[in-house]
Amino acid sequence: MKFTLFGLPKTGKTTLFNLLTGSQLETSKFAATEKSVHIGRCLVQDPRVRTLSEIFKPRKTIFAQIDYVDLGGLAFGDVKETELLPHLRNSDGLAHVVRAFEDDEMPVDVGLDPIRDLRRMDDELILADMVVVENRLDRLAKDLKKGKRPELVKEEEVVTRCRDVLSGGTPLRDVAFAEEEMRLIRGFMFLSQKPLLGIVNLGEKDTSRLGDHTGLFPPQWKDSTNVVICPVSAVIEEAISKLSEADAAEYIAAYGLTETALARLIRNSYSLLGLVSFFTVGEDEVRAWTVRKGINARGAAGAIHSDLERGFIRAEVVTYDDFMAAGSLSACRQNGTLRLEGKDYPVSDGEIIHFRSGV
Q1: How confident is the chain (359 residues) per 10-residue block, as mean pLDDT?
Q2: Are residues 175 and 216 in the same domain?
Q3: What distance in Å separates the CA atoms of residue 132 and residue 136, rounded to the nearest whole number?
Q4: Do 224 and 143 have their domain in common?
Q5: CA 57 to CA 71: how far, in whole Å?
Q6: Are residue 42 and residue 106 in the same domain, yes or no?
């Protein structure tokens, strides 16, 4: 799964990318206009995985992963024409980084207004999608003159609906499309249809807003289930990253928080993409597996190996909380919290699963 960080120059995108992925890209205050692309991988530091690893003491511990892409700064008006557009379209989700910090060495031309910038860049995504829609409708009109093929008629209907929505300034992520409609438009990879993470990069003196996004949400987004606003302070996160675990916990608590903004950002990325984790455990390996929310047990087995899916018999399932309360898998068997489930069982986040397979 992949999130792309984008936004105006000098918003702190690359600093956040470095913190998320452990990269060490140049973050000079005066080198922010380069149209570059960087890709890195982030380990989802799930405390449940760490606890299971301490219990089972495996040879390997593997966390879930999310890929992040750092795009060079985009100016307003760039999105529909930029050579970076394919990187936006090929992402599962978009993370728009906006600036809410003062810096005399990096002045802004029109003042700091994160809500304005979030909304204005969203309009850019809508405009880029409008270009795609208009081009497709022109092509469909020519093809339909040659014959009214049912598939093309259906596509014209749903693409016309997209045009009408976009013309009203509404992103496609706010529209509920039927499964058949999604099949017809999925290939367009509309930008305004992708889940959006709005990252508001705060200054070091603005820490009171780190745990609360009140006042940072554009009014148009308040009812959207596909948008999350995540306040962070790259400066503070950078300081935390250099501390020991104990000192970091004390530092975080001093701000009245229970986790770093970076951890919350990663969790929000996961949630927006509709992802959950299940765990496999043993002496060889403790591992978090990433699957779509609502996947059945047979499909989850396929995330590990196609042979497990093909030969699926049963899944032995226990929740993380039940396992921790019992203390061991054998105790879970004895108290009945470890269950046998069939192929259609919907997997939930945090379950420990062992798959029985005939292959």
Answers
A1: 90 90 70 73 91 97 94 74 84 94 64 85 94 96 90 95 96 94 96 95 73 60 79 88 89 82 87 93 96 96 96 98 97 97 96 94
A2: no
A3: 6
A4: no
A5: 39
A6: yes
